[in-house]
Design brief:
about 270 residues, alpha+beta, Immunoglobulin-like, eight-stranded mixed beta sheet, three-stranded antiparallel beta sheet, 4 helices, 16 strands, about 15% helix, elongated
């Protein structure tokens, strides 16, 4: 009986250790080479193992496109080696005391007609409105509209507004700028304040095959940073705007941090994590 109890205790200890360590069926980068641990279900990663190359990367988006880790601060930051690139969100933070947007958000993919909603303080309006402009990558105006106050605008408080702009998607490059201009009374000069945020245009001829969760999971498993950060779970969410899957990670005890809820993000268009 005593021997049986010892065996049971040993089995429990082994199971607990395996649970805490997580799955060993994975590809791990060691000394610049992919090493198979256990029997991973995914094939060996095709991208280089080891230190990432920084040549040619000059901004946040290029850093993201190269599958480098993104810090979920605001604005977001992408790190590669000793370099950190910050996401361009226009002058949103500087204008927060005057105006802010609910939709669209900086770097959101937009399509026509674009509905714009937010709040601005009363002095931003004149006769209950202010102009809104949409430009392409080169500053050429491709759409204009008027934001209308949804309440009493003769106040120092914030007032909700709504606007709509119809536009044609530029033929060259898919990025532009949304500009919300302060409306100064005629003959009364005032500061030419404006909120400017970068946006991306939805490509009309864009088409790609949607992925299912098994395919997304396979992509996530090939990413060493995702796989080494914890155990991929079956809990996920899907962001329609960015076409990204967010898979929850269960971290090992030694990696846990208070208040941290890590996820592996898979881009459906680029098929990368």
């Amino acid at each position: 009986m005593k021997k049986l109890s010892l065996i049971i205790i040993a089995v429990v200890i082994v199971v607990a250790v395996l649970f805490l360590r997580g799955s060993e069926d994975r590809w791990i980068c060691e000394n610049g080479q992919w090493i198979k641990h256990g029997n991973p279900s995914a094939s060996m990663p095709t991208k280089p193992c080891g230190e990432k190359q920084t040549a040619g990367i000059t901004n946040f988006q290029e850093c993201v496109n190269a599958d480098n880790p993104v810090m979920e601060s605001y604005p977001r930051q992408c790190r590669i080696g000793n370099q950190t690139f910050t996401e361009d969100i226009g002058n949103e933070l500087e204008a927060l005391d005057l105006i802010f947007l609910d939709t669209p958000r900086p770097n959101q993919i937009i399509k026509s007609p674009l509905v714009i909603k937010g709040q601005a303080n009363g002095p931003w309006f004149f006769e209950s409105d202010f102009p809104v402009v949409l430009t392409d990558w080169d500053g050429l105006i491709i759409g204009e509209g008027i934001a209308i106050a949804q309440g009493e605008w003769m106040t120092e408080e914030f007032v909700p507004f709504i606007a709509e702009i119809k536009f044609e998607v530029p033929k060259y490059k898919n990025n532009g700028t949304l500009i919300l201009q302060k409306n100064n009374p005629p003959g009364l000069p005032g500061p030419d304040d404006a909120l400017e945020i970068p946006v991306f245009f939805e490509e009309e001829n864009e088409s790609f095959l949607s992925l299912n969760f098994d395919e997304v999971l396979a992509i996530a498993r090939e990413n060493s940073e995702c796989y080494n950060a914890g155990i991929l779970t079956d809990k996920y969410s899907y962001n329609e705007n960015s076409k990204t899957w967010w898979i929850d990670l269960k971290r090992a005890i030694e990696l846990e941090k208070d208040g941290c809820n890590p996820a592996c993000v898979v881009n459906e268009k680029r098929k990368s994590a």
